[in-house]
Amino acid sequence: MTTAHSASLRRTRRAGVAAALLALGLSACATVPSGGPVVEGEGGAAGSLSGSGYVRQIPPGPQRDVEPEGLVRGFLKSMGSFEENHSAAREYLAPKTRSDWLPSGRVLVYEDSDKLALDAEVADDGESAQVRLLSSQLATIDAGGQYTPADAGQVIDVTLDLVRNGDDQWRISDPPEHLVLSRSDVDLVYRPLNLYFFNRDRSTLVPDAVFLPVSSDRSATRLVKMLVSGPTSWLDDAVESAFPEDATADVAYDSGTVTVEVDNASGGTTQRFGMRAQLVWTLRQLPEVEELTLRVGGQEIEIPADESENLHTGKGDWDSVNPAGVTGSLRAYFVRDGQMWALESDSRDAQLTESRVAGAPGAGQAALEQHAVSLDEDQVAGIRAGGKEVLVAGTSEGSDYTPVLSGGDYTSLSWDGYGNLWVTEDVSTGRENDDNQQQQDSEAVTEDTERGTPSPTASPSGGEAGDVGTRVWMLRGGTDPVEVDAPDLAESRVTALRMSRDGTRAAVLSSDGKGASHLSVGRVVHSDGAVTLSGEFPLATELEEITDVAWRGGDQLAVVGHVEQGAEQSYLVSLDGSTETTSAGAPPGTDMGGIAAAPGLPLLSGTEDDNVWMTDDRINWKRVGVGTNPVYPG
């Protein structure tokens, strides 16, 4: 099954980056429970997320003669136990409320108990009390498992009513509608996993992060039902599913096998392939799931078909749409003396070799501040020194650079998997500009801009002097500019925009003009010829400053930055919004100038002393050549 699931611009034609550029095992550190007794659960038998290694926390229950504030603190901690339908938390409730309490599935997340304010007020008769809970809100997890960071200044404000029971003990008579959990409790009782959906040409699967409670329930069945019901609201408009919108599924788990029976499924072979691929990539995250049986319209499909393989070892047709966004291997590129060079190896034990890129990129006749290589490695885009012009050239002999945008202040560029070039333009007011030259350049390129979109060189309008702003362009095929509707970036200064290789999301480094940098990821929606980039989702907020970003995979970024008073180094950032960033180190004795990353390949960095460094173990960086600005295609 290949005809409906291949896209030449998304695939590289070279089979060979070498094993010297082999996969990094850079994964997030495991979270260790922060307190309370723990017991080993029977996760394997129950189909839990972690197989037989599933760990659950057992809260001790309410202490006798505890005061209202202490009772509420114990109740909040017990909310983190999902065992037996929150039976531990129900012990804190009044008898009439205990059986009726039904949390909505929505979770309000706060930072930690030290930042939680409780104000208790006991009635004059001593028989009732109110406890008000106040805290800055960190995030929300909705009923569908979507984790959303809270807006700045958002607070949790909940008031609980308490009464004395027949034993003269305080109990909660009016529990909150939602669960209220600390970040450490979320880390302990939830696990981030991905649902997988298709990008718009169905050539690549796109991860959609959700949080699933770790409990004795059968997590595999819950994960499949979430997949069939569709993507999260954040990603919904940017992806497609092979499952019909109104489809439902009967799901069963037994001894390592998940059986899925889909009703109301239409379509033929192509749709079955899509459902199969989405299920396989979603279920491969669960180590206890080894086989999948899919029944569609009475037809049964066993996966994998080879009895000697399982979902984790088998190689099936689902690999053709793998979430990496590329098949084969990518070469790395860097610049030396203005000329672009490729870096690759032909075998596992071979030395890395350098080869100058053919055509204009390798000739070095255009001084470029930045460059980006298309995923098919056939085109190179660059921002000419001074930032006023964007050029594109082929990588074949005799090619020349062609201006595709001019007259603006261009700050970054990146290629998506559809062969489109993305460019950001600084339209901040208060800059010194030659208005006459701006107008001449604008008239020169007007005919190259699609009707209904402003000229690439149109001067910024409105706003007071000193306002920051960014305009985003998408050049179809690298040549035809269309202005992207990017409302979240209109009042920011963007220093880097990097497109995901599946074309559905953009990682953005920006500032509000006050010096601080912010990392976010937005979704890309194509509709009736228009393109929108919106829904900026903040990431790596614990880093003090971030200076560069690259996509390491479909659900992970690599960045250069530092924590407060820390040294600058590289970090890996998960797109789930909650998983803590992890350090990937830094080259010794020099400052990092940027970061390059790609699925299954080492991290690369150009340093201030004009050397290229790499690491394939997150600890040891080694120098691989003289040059600057290393990049992978994308």
Q: What do you see in this structure?
A:
It is built from 9 helices and 38 strands. Strands 3, 4, 5, 6, 7, 8 and 9 form a 7-stranded mixed beta sheet that branches. A 4-stranded mixed beta sheet has the order 12-13-14-15, covered by helices on one side. The protein has 634 residues and is mostly beta strands.
Oligomer: single chain
By secondary-structure content and strand pairing, the structural class works out as mainly beta
Shape: globular
Mean pLDDT: 84
- Biggest beta sheet summary: 7 strands, mixed
> Care to count the β-strands?
38
User: Low-confidence runs (pLDDT<50, min 5 residues)?
Assistant: 1-54, 432-465
Ends distance: 26 Å
Number of helices: 9
Q: Please state roughly what percent of the residues sit in beta strands, choosing from under 5%, 5-15%, 15-25%, 25-35%, 35-45% or over 45%.
A: 35-45%
Radius of gyration: 27 Å
Percentage of residues assigned to helices: 10-25%
